[in-house]
């Protein structure tokens, strides 16, 4: 067996974990994973899906699709909780401070998540793919939040 001696960077490592976390998503439109990290230690993870104990979109269908709502609009019209929100909630449920952490996410956050991330005092977002929400970009640009897009090696 041939070994690759090149070790992944921390950013590549945590983004791959975010992609793995996204595999638990129950959203029919977009599978998103998020990982909150501080000092190279995972604090919390989250994926998008219905609230705990509720029927998933996989089982009942997507109300956004059924109503023709485009991606990046009318976030409140969805049964699901976003991956970033779930990562923040899980940290809170378990009493873990995320102040000063980095959020690794498969997608750029929407405007709702961006506001939560800023108020949770996350310092940086590293993401793979964009998301069509111009207000989110404006909100983040006005904040002290750092953002960085990193595409997987095969796409560079």
What separation lies between the terminal Cα atoms?
27 Å
Major beta-sheet overview: 5 strands, mixed
- How many β-strand stretches? 5
Strand/helix succession: HEEHHHEHEHE
CA-atom Rg in angstroms: 16 Å
Q: Helical segment tally? A: 6
What is the SS-derived class?
A: alpha/beta
Which overall shape is indicated by the principal axes computed on the Cα atoms?
globular
The helical percent reads: 25-40%
Unreliable segments of 5+ consecutive residues:
none
Order of adjacent strands in the largest pleated sheet:
2-1-3-4-5
Strand content: 15-25%
Mean pLDDT: 91
Descriptive account of the structure:
- The protein is of the alpha/beta class.
- Helix content is 32%, strand content 19%.
- It has 6 helices and 5 strands.
- The chain has helices at 10-22, 57-60, 63-66, 83-93, 111-119, 134-142; strands at 33-38, 41-47, 102-107, 124-129, 146-149.
- A 5-stranded mixed sheet has the order 2-1-3-4-5.
- The longest helix has 13 residues, at 10-22.
Structural topology:
Layout: H1 10-22, E1 33-38, E2 41-47, H2 57-60, H3 63-66, H4 83-93, E3 102-107, H5 111-119, E4 124-129, H6 134-142, E5 146-149
Parallel strand pairs: 3-4, 4-5
Antiparallel strand pairs: 1-2, 1-3
Task: Give a short overview.
This protein has 156 residues and is α/β, with parallel strands linked by helices. The chain is built from 6 helices and 5 strands, in the order H-E-E-H-H-H-E-H-E-H-E.
């Amino acid at each position: 067996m041939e070994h690759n001696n090149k070790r992944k960077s921390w950013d590549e490592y945590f983004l791959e974990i975010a992609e793995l976390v996204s595999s638990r998503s129950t959203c029919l439109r977009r599978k998103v994973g998020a990982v909150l990290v501080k000092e190279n230690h995972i604090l919390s993870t989250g994926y998008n899906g219905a609230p705990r104990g509720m029927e998933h979109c996989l089982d009942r269908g997507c109300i956004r699709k059924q109503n023709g709502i485009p991606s990046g609009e009318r976030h409140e019209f969805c049964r699901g909780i976003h991956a970033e929100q779930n990562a923040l909630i899980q940290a809170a449920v378990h009493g873990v401070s995320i102040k000063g952490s980095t959020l690794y996410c498969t997608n750029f956050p929407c405007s709702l998540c961006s506001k939560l991330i800023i108020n949770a005092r996350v310092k940086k977002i590293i993401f793979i793919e964009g998301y069509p929400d111009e207000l989110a970009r404006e909100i983040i640009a006005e904040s002290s939040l750092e953002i960085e897009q990193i595409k997987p090696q095969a796409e560079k």
